[in-house]
Amino acid sequence: MSPGSGRPRQPSLAQLRAFAAVAEHLHFRDAATALGMSQPALSGAVSALEEVLDVQLVERTTRKVLLSPAGERLAVRARTVLDAVAALMEEADAARAPFTGVLRLGVIPTVAPYLLPAVLRLVHDAYPDLDLQVHEEQTSSLLDGLTQGRLDLLLLAVPLGVPGVTELPLFDEDFVLVMPRDHWLAGRGDIPREALRELDLLLLDEGHCLRDQALDICREVGRTSGALGTTSAAGLSTLVQLVGGGMGVTLLPRTALRVETERNAQLATGSFADPVPSRRIALAMRTGAARQGEFGQFAEALRKELRKLPVRVTAP
């Protein structure tokens, strides 16, 4: 108890950092080196934390350091507190100076290889002080990361229809039919959607939103998922290789076309007649995010950068 306070003292951040470092390294010298402080100062900070909490956190021996059962549980809590403080400081940095600090961007696999060059070019040229960190994951994982605070901004296909998530549309892009070069639809520019009822359509694995979009298109023309083959692939590159091997046809977003097909002479493409099946790509953020103004500016700058691609940029 602090003199005259009438209530328990609170641990300091310095004490929590010292304990977290010891819990990570299980060695006082290594933990002190990691924090850039002396070993006696580190040991004193951990002892002070034990006194404040009235709990023994570590068992000290001549050779090593062990966490007590209470120490193991409280180490997790200490790391959570320190991570929350770091997030607080990042938000404060962003509020003081937009487009600085860390931006954790999540991207779906069917977008990342084709749009990241434009995103990275924009950040390099316009926002050199922004520490962009990219995470490629499927949609469900990205949304979990956004709502839990692990990610700040997502680049993915919409609509999502998720409460608490705001979408910033970037562009629409058409789907193209990719097929073997000797296919009867090769090179056509007026393929009716209804042709998808009879084709051997290859899809991505479960969990990819592009698979769901392809299935939606099939349902629109009266084809059920039960009428599709069992062959699937984990990525677009593998899917295209299967097409080149004569196993069927597939749908590719137009932004992926050049990367995935230009080096394979066994492939041909065809375009759909109106109404052309398409998808919409957007940025997504937590509704009411502290950096929502900054993210809106980022979306507008990215729209201008994406005009160089075969897409229809949307209005903000």
UniProtKB/TrEMBL annotation:
<dbReference type="GO" id="GO:0003677">
    <property type="term" value="F:DNA binding"/>
</dbReference>
<dbReference type="InterPro" id="IPR036390">
    <property type="entry name" value="WH_DNA-bd_sf"/>
</dbReference>
<protein>
    <recommendedName>
        <fullName>Probable hydrogen peroxide-inducible genes activator</fullName>
    </recommendedName>
</protein>
<dbReference type="GO" id="GO:0003700">
    <property type="term" value="F:DNA-binding transcription factor activity"/>
</dbReference>
<dbReference type="InterPro" id="IPR000847">
    <property type="entry name" value="LysR_HTH_N"/>
</dbReference>
<keyword id="KW-0010">Activator</keyword>
<keyword id="KW-0805">Transcription regulation</keyword>
<keyword id="KW-0804">Transcription</keyword>
<dbReference type="InterPro" id="IPR036388">
    <property type="entry name" value="WH-like_DNA-bd_sf"/>
</dbReference>
<comment type="similarity">
    <text>Belongs to the LysR transcriptional regulatory family.</text>
</comment>
<dbReference type="Pfam" id="PF03466">
    <property type="entry name" value="LysR_substrate"/>
</dbReference>
<dbReference type="GO" id="GO:0032993">
    <property type="term" value="C:protein-DNA complex"/>
</dbReference>
<keyword id="KW-0238">DNA-binding</keyword>
<dbReference type="Pfam" id="PF00126">
    <property type="entry name" value="HTH_1"/>
</dbReference>
<feature type="domain" description="HTH lysR-type">
    <location>
        <begin position="11"/>
        <end position="68"/>
    </location>
</feature>
<dbReference type="InterPro" id="IPR005119">
    <property type="entry name" value="LysR_subst-bd"/>
</dbReference>
